[in-house]
From TrEMBL, chain A:
This is Cytochrome c oxidase subunit 1. It is found in: Cell membrane. It comes from Oceanobacillus bengalensis. GO terms for cellular component: plasma membrane. One of its GO terms (biological process) is respiratory electron transport chain.
TrEMBL record, chain B:
Belongs to the cytochrome c oxidase subunit 2 family. Subunits I and II form the functional core of the enzyme complex. Electrons originating in cytochrome c are transferred via heme a and Cu(A) to the binuclear center formed by heme a3 and Cu(B). It comes from Oceanobacillus bengalensis. The lineage of its organism: Bacteria, Bacillati, Bacillota, Bacilli, Bacillales. The keyword Iron applies. GO terms for biological process: ATP synthesis coupled electron transport. Keywords: Copper, Electron transport, Heme, Iron, Membrane, Metal-binding, Oxidoreductase, Respiratory chain, Translocase, Transmembrane, Transmembrane helix, Transport. Residues 124-236 form the Cytochrome oxidase subunit II copper A binding domain. Gene3D superfamilies: 1.10.287.90, Cupredoxins - blue copper proteins. Residues 23-121 form the Cytochrome oxidase subunit II transmembrane region profile domain. It comes from the Bacteria. One of its GO terms (cellular component) is plasma membrane. This is Cytochrome c oxidase subunit 2. InterPro entries: CcO_II, CcO_II-like_C, Copper_CuA, Cupredoxin, CuRO_CcO_Caa3_II, Cyt_c-like_dom, Cyt_c-like_dom_sf, Cyt_c_oxidase_su2. The keyword Electron transport applies.
TrEMBL record, chain C:
Keywords: Cell membrane, Membrane, Transmembrane, Transmembrane helix. Residues 1-205 form the Heme-copper oxidase subunit III family profile domain. Belongs to the cytochrome c oxidase subunit 3 family. It comes from Oceanobacillus bengalensis. This is Cytochrome (Ubi)quinol oxidase subunit III. One of its GO terms (biological process) is aerobic electron transport chain. It is a multi-pass membrane protein. One of its GO terms (cellular component) is plasma membrane.
Length: 618, 350, 207
């Protein structure tokens, strides 16, 4: 178990390494890779949607296929692209920011990743097995219950698997942040990205179980004949909407808060200035998360909940504008008086501010219940949440990837290509979605396979489609940048930006598997910056050089995931033939057996010895 | 500086294009030109919120622009270390307090209008219509009037009309943007909403809750006529006799086929409560066929021969005897004779 | 580093379950997990409350529930929670044998609870024809109570596995946290049952 790894290894060895790894950085990278794959997949689905809507009464794809496209686009982007890309960054960066050697539960971390990946792949298998889910990403009952074929079953099982994985990730981050901060890293010295990871994990913890229950009810109705949503037997389909949105609204904050965190890291570094109003930023984050749990019914203003509920949820939703506004102004104030360097990471961040402000404002507009009677389920809402999710989350992910790329992979992304990608994507984004506000108000509901001729919707849709293609080209340039950088890019130093403020920039790029040779002593917010200002240029160690305890890799999470996946197929197909119950029980036996094996076998890990550490150069 | 202006020109152009497009919303479909009580209420709040939001956006953009221009790192400033400001209590309180005030300004009229639009005090003294969403058509049952119709909803102008909205299958949503905001049609309960149209005319209605493959083809119309015309229409509808023989020979053959194939099993003519499929009373005066197609004999024939091609996932496909093209032609001829009132969509437009 | 040898009280920490970072992490992790479980059961309770009168002409809660059986079940589960407290107390005293004994009693009480629950379901199905598919009420009842029962099954399997596995090894710094987290999990199951007893059975018999 020496850390002196050989330079050239066979493909099999690398594969085995990744299948068994419990290293948070490798798992983070796998999350990012898988998330990028699903992002491209979801993007292709978006393009197909936009081609279908390029002109009135188009017949590029059939109505049924179109519904599969919109369902898979939404589900893929939310659950299998945005969430894992963020969790990947959290995984790779957060432990570095708090000065930890790994997360609290490395084994669980690996299991979480494999479950997410299995869920995503399982759902996409439906394309080849008789049709994808077609009841929308929200899968409203009873439409989702009566939806023919197995599409919705794949939706249920895929989300159940990946949801379990995400929940594990959330718990893992929480415990890591509570117990594994380096000496001196108090809560109010944690970088904002770590803070938002913490709060987003709290949201994951309390939001995902509601979805889990909703999916169980849907699964039982579809597969085992229960009557939760069967009106004839006294069922009530509104229950699904409540459960879905009790999960679904916090999910928006699970996505946007880490993005806020990333912008709060990038702005200070490239303005050479401390984050303005750190304390109020932290409390605004907590307040947004808290309010985020009591506004779910604003997705249901037209359901007929009555004026009292509508009024309460309207006002509660508007209140979220206050902490969000605090954040926007704090970011502006951070730059004020600073020395702003505009590179591609900063471009994404700067573009985020106006884009997200528009999204936030239309958010207040749709919060007005009376006005929402018009906005609801139209392209206005589509425009609104794409401004939030693309203008906020995707810009954040791309900014964060550009910013941390050298830390993750040891090479700085090409600046020119980065800027080209940015401008294409940025212009394409506004072309695509700005006009959709008006399309909605002009009478175009969402999820429309065709719009009719002569209803004044032609030009707007055409512009929107053109914008979508610009975004696609921008994404291609970004991917090309990644490829060209990994081939030709030069090796990055520990602090490639020169102005790094937080702990991750004090260790080599990419970091060694143990992260910190000696845990650093943290003396304040922006610990590395403090040391730089005092002329130290590196962290003071908090402990003498000693053996480092590391967890062993394990193939068990992968096997366990395979077991659950087999069982999922069994659940889906046992409706057709009871022989599939063998898959259910067999798969569960594999999964539970592995769990038992894990529980019975003590895993003491191994130690990297002091002598080997001394040989390593910084 | 000039280069920078160039970018701005592009933005201004985009704004102008947008404005032109805004004005282009189709009359009696767009929500931006409200002609009904609910739509006006929504519009008022849209305008109020847009004004407030635009003001905030301008302030943010002003600061943003100043920051980027003034504090951008210039050549020779690479080693400059700005003052590390922790925060500023006064400023932070200001930008917490102002949004709270703005939210309050928005919240008060919102709450008032929400309760105003849900007020059902005069429901019993008004016209009540039961609206039922089906995959993929709308049924209207005029409570107490013994009138059943589908797809085209006739109401009098400047009169509050209460709609009791529900569904027989999945969730739909009743939306006529120019007259009022939407209300969901749920299968487990009935939602009540009132509408009041201020101008005569034919208004487009859309299903706004995803309901399956033909969700985008589930359009309907509201035909708003004068009070006299409405009274006349009600009287005409109450006197529909489904048994009456049509005169034209081809149409007569169609009527026989209609009866022989038991079309009435699903499609009622007159006030029969059968509503498995759309009620065909006054069919010849419909604005459209199947919600979206022109009402022509050719289109009816195409529908009868292959409904799936017009409305994917509809419930008629495969549930009626196969027809030859001639038979379909005769039935179409018969249906085109089903004009039960002189009050037509055209009367609303005059 | 004599981790394979069982602990003795002279040279070891006050609380073996929280002596290591792994032990503390596990305990905290389980607490967080139970936070998520709370939302899970809250959602199931909400669903049940929304559907408990939707009997669709089938048997209602008043027709079905009898207090005696549920009362015995409640006593069994509450007692098992208490005995698990004794077990943890013995663990902190480094008395491994007594710990195993108390956990053994806990397992037997848990099995007893499970037996009665299976009998209860069997009774509803055969005597009343009240199944998972009878009505929305039936679906909600079996799902809520069944989820709890599933947790009991999982908890018992987990307990028996770690008891058997460690029977010969004695208490170590690796397995002490496992017993400790198990006990926390078991208390949670107990608390959920108290709510089920109140919301499902007591309220079901009154209204």
């Amino acid at each position: 178990m020496s850390i002196a790894s050989t330079q050239k290894r066979g493909f099999g060895a690398i594969l085995w390494d990744y299948l068994t790894t419990v290293d948070h950085k490798k798992i983070g990278n796998m999350y990012i890779a898988a998330g990028a794959f699903f992002f491209i997949l979801g993007g292709l689905e978006a393009l197909i949607i936009r081609i279908q809507l390029v002109k009135p009464e188009n017949d590029f794809i059939s109505a049924g296929l179109y519904n599969e496209m919109i369902t898979m686009h939404g589900t893929t982007m939310i659950f299998f692209a945005a969430t894992p890309l963020l969790i990947g960054l959290m995984n790779a960066i957060m432990p570095l920011q708090i000065g930890a050697r790994d997360v609290a539960f490395p084994f669980l971390n690996s299991l979480g990743f494999w479950l997410f990946l299995a869920g995503g792949l399982l759902m996409n298998c439906s394309w080849f097995l008789g049709g994808a889910p077609d009841a929308g990403w929200t899968a409203y009952a009873p439409l989702s219950v009566v939806s023919p074929g197995h599409g919705t079953d794949f939706y249920v099982m895929g989300l159940q698997l990946s949801g379990a994985g995400t929940l594990m990730g959330g718990i893992n981050f929480l415990v890591t942040i509570v117990t594994m901060r380096a000496p001196g890293m108090t809560y109010m010295r944690m970088p904002l990205f770590t803070w938002t990871t913490f709060i987003a994990s709290v949201l994951i913890l309390f939001a995902f179980p509601a979805l889990t229950v909703g999916l169980f009810l849907l699964m039982f109705d579809r597969m085992f004949g229960s009557a939760f949503f069967d009106i004839a037997l006294g069922g009530n389909s509104i229950i699904w909407q409540h459960l879905f949105w009790i999960f679904g609204h916090p999910e928006v904050y699970i996505l946007i808060l880490p993005a806020f965190g990333m912008f709060s890291e990038i702005l200070p570094v490239f303005s050479k200035k401390r984050l303005f109003g750190y304390t109020s930023m932290v409390f605004a984050t907590i307040l947004i998360a808290f309010l985020g749990f009591m506004v779910w019914a604003h997705h249901m203003f037209t359901v007929g909940l009555g004026p009292t509920a509508n009024a309460i949820f309207s006002v509660a939703t508007m209140a979220i504008a206050v902490p969000t506004g605090i954040k926007i102004f704090n970011w502006l104030a951070t730059m004020w008086g600073g020395s702003i360097k505009i590179n591609s990471a900063m471009l994404w961040t700067l573009a985020f501010i106006p884009s997200f402000t528009i999204g936030g404002m239309t958010g207040v507009m749709v919060a007005i219940s009376t006005a929402d009677y018009q906005y609801h389920d139209t392209y206005f809402v589509i425009a609104h949440f794409h401004y939030v999710i693309v203008g906020g989350v995707v810009f954040g992910i791309l900014a964060g990837l550009t910013y941390w790329w050298p830390k993750l992979f040891g090479k700085v992304l090409n600046e020119t290509l980065g800027k080209i990608a940015f401008w294409l994507f940025f212009i394409g984004f506004h072309l695509t979605f700005f006009i959709q506000h008006f399309l909605g108000l002009m009478g175009m509901p969402r999820r429309y396979w065709v719009f009719l001729e002569g209803q004044g919707l032609d030009t707007g849709n055409l512009i929107s489609t053109i914008g979508a293609f610009l975004m696609a080209i921008g994404s291609v340039v970004f991917v090309y940048n990644v490829i060209i950088t990994s081939i030709k890019g030069e090796k990055a130093p520990a602090d490639p930006w020169g102005d790094g403020r937080t702990l991750e920039w004090s260790i080599p790029s990419p970091p060694p598997e143990y992260n910190f040779k000696q845990l650093p002593l943290v003396r304040g917010l922006d610990p590395l910056w403090i040391e730089k200002m005092e002329g130290n240029n590196k962290m003071t160690p908090a402990e003498p050089l000693d053996d480092i305890h590391m967890p062993n890799g394990s193939i068990l999470p992968f096997i366990m995931t395979i077991g659950f996946t087999i069982a999922s197929f069994g659940f889906i197909y046992q409706v057709d033939h009871s022989a599939w119950l063998i898959a259910v029980f067999g798969g569960m036996a594999i999964a539970l057996g592995t769990m038992l094996a894990r529980s019975l076998k003590d895993d003491d890990g191994y130690h990297i010895h002091k002598e080997d550490l001394e040989k390593e150069v910084d | 500086m000039l280069r920078w202006m160039g970018k701005f020109k592009a933005l201004i152009m985009l704004g102008i294009v947008t404005l032109v497009l805004t004005a282009c919303g189709k009359e009696n479909l767009t929500a931006l030109d409200p002609k009904g009580y609910g739509a006006e209420k929504s519009m008022d709040l849209m305008i109020l919120s847009t004004v407030i939001m635009a003001a905030v956006f301008i302030v943010v953009m002003l600061i943003f622009t100043v920051v980027i221009i003034r504090f951008r790192r210039k050549k020779g400033q690479e080693d400059f270390i700005p003052k590390q400001v922790e925060g500023n209590h006064t400023l932070e309180i200001v930008w917490t307090a102002i949004p709270i005030i703005l939210v309050f300004i928005l919240a008060v009229p919102t709450v008032m209008s929400v309760f105003d639009l849900a007020d059902e005090a005069d429901a019993s003294s008004s016209i009540n219509i039961e609206v039922t969403g089906n995959q993929y058509w709308w049924h209207f049952d005029y409570a107490g009037e013994e009138i059943q119709t589908s797809q085209d909803l006739y109401i009098p102008v400047n009169e509050k009309v209460y709609l009791d909205i529900n569904s027989t299958d999945v969730i739909h949503s009743f939306w006529v943007p120019t007259i009022s905001g939407k209300m969901d049609a749920n299968p487990e309960n009935t939602n009540t909403m009132f509408i009041e149209a201020y101008e005569e005319g034919v208004y487009w209605g859309k299903c706004a809750e995803f309901c399956g493959p033909s969700h985008s083809l589930m359009d309907f119309k509201i035909v708003v006529v004068s009070q006299e015309e409405y009274d006349q229409w009600v009287e005409d509808m109450q006197n529909v006799d489904p048994e009456v023989q049509v005169e034209d020979a081809v149409a007569q053959e169609g009527q026989e086929l209609f009866e022989a194939n038991n079309c009435m099993g699903c499609h009622a003519i007159g006030s029969s409560p059968v509503a498995v499929g759309p009620n065909l009373t006054n069919f010849a005066n419909r604005t459209t066929l199947a919600g979206v197609e022109d009402l022509t004999k050719e289109n009816i024939v195409s529908w009868l021969l292959d409904p799936e091609a017009m409305k994917p996932g509809n419930k008629m496909t495969g549930n009626y005897p196969e027809l030859t093209e001639d038979e379909a032609g005769s039935i179409a001829e018969y249906l085109m004779q089903l004009s039960h009132s002189d009050i037509t969509p055209e009367s609303a437009s005059n | 580093m004599s981790q394979e040898h069982s602990l003795n009280p002279e040279n070891l920490p006050k609380d073996p379950a929280k002596a290591t970072l792994e032990g503390r992490n596990k305990f905290l992790g389980l607490w967080f997990f139970l936070g998520g479980e709370t939302v899970l059961f809250a959602s199931l309770f909400a669903t049940y409350l929304a559907l408990r009168n939707s009997t669709a002409g089938g048997p209602s809660s008043q027709d079905l529930f009898g207090l005696e059986l549920v009362f015995i079940m409640t006593i069994l589960l509450l007692t098992s929670s208490l005995t698990s407290v004794y077990a943890i107390y013995q663990m902190k005293n480094y008395n491994f044998k007594k710990m195993q004994l108390w956990f053994g009693i806990t397992a037997i009480l848990g099995l007893g609870f499970l037996g009665f629950e299976i009998y209860e379901f069997y009774h509803y199905i055969t005597d009343y024809g009240f199944t998972f598919r009878s009505s929305a009420f039936g679906s909600a009842f079996y799902t809520l109570v069944g989820f709890h029962g599933g947790h009991v099954v999982f908890g018992l399997s987990w307990l028996i596995a770690i008891m058997v596995r460690n029977a010969k090894r004695g208490l170590t710094l690796q397995n002490a946290p496992k017993f400790n987290t198990w006990a926390l999990y078991w208390h949670f199951i107990d608390v959920v049952w108290v709510f089920i007893f109140t919301v499902v059975y007591l309220m079901g018999m009154v209204s």
